[in-house]
Amino acid sequence: MRTLSATLLAEQKISQTPFARVYLEHGVTNYTFTTSSGDRIKSIEHKEEVYGSVAVITLDNSDYYFNGLNLFGYIVQIGWGATTGAGNEYSNSPNLWVVGYKTTSENGVLECVLECLDVWNLLGRNHVFVGGYKLTGTVSGTVLRGEKCTLGAVTGTVYLVAEDYVHIVSTTGTPVTGTATFSGGASQVVTEVTAIGAAETTMGWNSTDHSIEFIVESMLFGWITLTVDSDDPNAAFVTYKTSYTPQLGVTARQVIKDVMDFTRCGLRVESDGAMHAMYLDPAPAAVDYEFRLDVATYHNFKSSTNDRRLVTPNRIIVCNSYPSEKTPLYVGVATDSDSYTALGKYITQIIIMQNIGSQADADARATSLIARVKAEQSIGELLCPTINCGQEVLDWIKITDARNNGVISTGRVGAIS
Q1: Which of 71, 93, 281, 290 has a CB 3.0–4.6 Å from the CB of 398, allowing a cystine?
Q2: Is 214 helix (H, G, I), strand (E, B) or coil?
Q3: Order of strands across the sheet with 289-292?
Q4: What gap in Å lies between CA 34 and CA 157, rounded to an integer?
Q5: Taking CA 284 as the corner, what is the angle to CA 283 and CA 287, rounded to the nearest 5 degrees?
Q6: Whole-number Å distance between alpha carbons of 293 and 297
Q7: Count of CB atoms within 10 A of residue 228's CB?
Q8: Is this prediction's pTM over 0.70?
């Protein structure tokens, strides 16, 4: 959860005077709009989810202010808050980008409507490259994914950057050893290429290559930085290396979701402009925020639902192929004992994942998948009269319902709207 001032934290629990701010920025140009009387914000529809957030912002255009503007590509910060004794206070949600921009005229009402997407949705439209060459040598300076690489008469696009190599795709020919330069300019130094890997028709990673952290960072393509706040008990995100080969046409978002299934971590884009990896502890020692009806100093709520279901399937078997089709055969098995005890039988799901390259891969994927199935079987919904301005997806919250004999529910936030 984002940190709030003491005045905003207290006011949001009782406030009848909500406040919102929209900040747009592109290079040195920026605009600020608020819900204050006489300003331009008419409405904001904003939904945050773990793997994708969207917003539609409607602004007053009665003075034709937006007619001559081009806001495509602007970074958008939506700040939710309240009017407190200290003034108009707010907390910014994660960045969005303007991808839709229109002005409307109807019955004398002139409006500007901004359609905004977060980085997850942009990565969901960014397809993974296939093929290319691995250039091994001495990498120095700052080389970024997406830059143009020139090596003699050959050019290509940087796809991956590691300590001792870069991988380029979309090449104009076969690279040779020598000095490579990049579109970042002379200040980015050069790379001395000492070896050229064979031409590849697929892009992927093997179990001796790079960690989940490296693969995720590779898929961000410079849109956003990755920060590791905490890893799971097996250090699966930072140190675990898996075999993974994306299919032709798969998106960067799907690659990230696939490899995260090897871990018990989650990813969250935060208002600092970074993507944060964190361990999703199923029973954390402390809650990020608490809602309850019986104490005036806590955040109130109108209604809550708690939908609990038996875990099915209660056994997941993950294999790298059907039996007899591939050698060696790796089989990972994970179960939910509570569900098995209740039913007295296993309900089994068998999943074939051809990119699994070791027994450890199979075991990790099965364990992670059963954990995610268990988490998804207990869901709820909370409706509040006032917003928690600092709430973030994946926060661990606690709800005490005095109307329902003090029933306590806990869980992680999956969506905010």
Answers
A1: 290
A2: helix
A3: 289-292, 396-401, 407-412
A4: 42
A5: 120
A6: 9
A7: 16
A8: yes
3-state class of 186 per DSSP?
A: helix
Q: Hey, what amino acid is at 104?
A: T
Helix (H) or strand (E) holding 368: helix 359-376
Under a CB-based contact definition with an 8 Å cutoff, are residues 56 and 400 in contact?
A: no
Which one, of 331, 341, 340, 337, lies nearest residue 366 by Cα?
331
Residue among 319, 259, 299, 381 nearest 14 (CA): 299
The per-residue pLDDT string of the chain (417 residues; one tens digit each, 9 = 90 and over) reads 999 999 999 888 887 788 999 999 999 999 999 999 889 999 999 999 999 999 999 999 999 999 989 999 999 999 999 999 999 999 999 999 999 999 999 988 999 999 999 999 999 998 776 567 778 887 777 777 778 888 878 888 887 776 677 778 767 777 778 888 887 655 455 567 776 766 655 556 665 667 889 889 888 877 889 999 999 887 888 988 777 777 767 888 998 998 888 888 999 999 999 999 999 998 899 999 999 887 777 888 888 887 778 888 999 998 888 776 777 889 999 999 999 999 999 999 998 877 677 888 888 888 888 887 887 777 788 888 888 999 999 999 999 988 888 888 888 999 999
Tokens of 88: 């108009």
3-state secondary structure (DSSP) of residue 24 = strand
Residue 354, both tokens: 């051809």
Q: How many residues does the chain have?
A: 417
Structure tokens at 82: 């309240």
The answer for 190, left when phi > 0, alpha when psi is -120 to 50, beta otherwise, is beta
393 contacts 50 by C-beta, under 8 angstroms: yes
Rounded CA gap, 311 and 322, in Å?
25
Q: Which residues pair with 407 in a beta bridge?
A: 401
User: What is the residue whose two structure tokens read 């050959």?
Assistant: 154
**Smallest Cα–Cα separation from 221: which of 136, 127, 102?**
127
Torsion of CA 368, 373, 378, 383, to 10 degrees: 80
| Tokens linked to 181 | 């330069």
